[in-house]
Amino acid sequence: MSDLNNIYAEFGISQKVVDLSEKVLSSLEERFLEIDKNAEFNQMKVLAAMQKHKVSDIHFAATTGYGYNDLGRDVLEDVYATAFKAEAALVRPQLVSGTHALHVALSGNLRPGDELLSPVGKPYDTLEEVIGIRDSRGSLREYGVTYSQVDLLPDGSFDFEGIRKAINEKTKLVTIQRSKGYATRKTLSVEQIGELIKFVKSINPNIICMVDNCYGEFVERIEPIEVGADMIVGSLIKNPGGGLAPIGGYIVGTKECVDNASYRLSAPGLGKEIGASLGMNTSMFQGFFLSPTVVAGALKGAIFAANLYESLGFDCHPNATEPRFDIIQEITLRDPKALCAFCEGIQAAAPVDSYVKPEPWAMPGYDSDVIMAAGAFVGGSSIELSADGPMKEPYSVFFQGGLTWYHAKLGIMLSLQKIYDAGLL
Ligand SMILES: *Cc1c(COP(=O)(O)O)cnc(C)c1O
């Protein structure tokens, strides 16, 4: 009874799905080995940063109130700065989400009359209101910061001529989104980001180059600071929180950029000096420590899913063999029932709320109903196994995460099982 197949059977997975999965997996050994090697490299990078800054149990103590002299908070920021090869970092539970961290980074570094440029097309949905692409109260636009955008060329490459034309004497900051998020373009590699930054700096070296690093951390061996970014920004309930950070965001970069952001997060004059860590330092340190291996598990899950579903005739982005630069996987299911069944499988595999059946629902900001599957320890965490998709053509599911590879694998197997059970394949 200690056979793996028996325990899979208890989850309702048929021999057919087990066999298909094993067949697909046997072709992935080399890729998984490469992922493990990257994880080892990144694990060493984080460990070395922790040792360099002499992380000790005194850093796990909670502070309250103003949080002056919060040693743990300050050392955590030094660890982030070192691991990401930057001068300074702001890593705080008071940065309540990725969008908030991006807003603080942008509004702290832009002044009225400045222009913000996105040379990689439209940014992530929630940034439209931050920037003022969609009318919204309190946007950068209301504060006199203008915005311009250059789309990627149809083949996904940078429109260097367009970018050169768009840069003018007002251009103060360039925002580069690493992950495609839920858009249809490809995710950028750190190397590609480096080429873009070099080009921008060749026109005007004073332009601040910021990278929205969400979903990209530890997927590669280098991070965007190493190819010239002045500032990188992300969320702790994605990759770098390692599934343990219960909240938080980070802004890492030059001392000047990070200080400017800190004056926006707290207040001019106060900056990084203030902000109690409220007992969250341990989870933030430990989550960062685990993040490289957690990201590796999520990556294996994404690659397994692409290979499994592509072998059954579904379009996958990235496809089965493409290199990976973030942890998101899109599968075009072409059928609303299959989309629901897929999400039911992910939900049924969850450690939390596995007995819940996800239903499509209207969501603010979406023009169609959306179905979501998540059974997470941390609310909304997307480094944990989660899936969602808008109930409209082409009925694509986006999924990401998995705190362990084995859990991601089970979720994907169950997603396929539910599609078979519904008679859709
Ligand atoms: C998730 C994400 C954001 C926003 O982060 P939230 O925590 O959801 O506010 C911004 N940009 C990208 C590329 C993302 O993936």
TrEMBL record:
Pfam families (UniProt xref): Met_gamma_lyase
PANTHER family: CYS OR MET METABOLISM PYRIDOXAL-PHOSPHATE-DEPENDENT ENZYME
UniProt protein name: Methionine gamma-lyase family protein
Organism (species): Lachnoanaerobaculum gingivalis
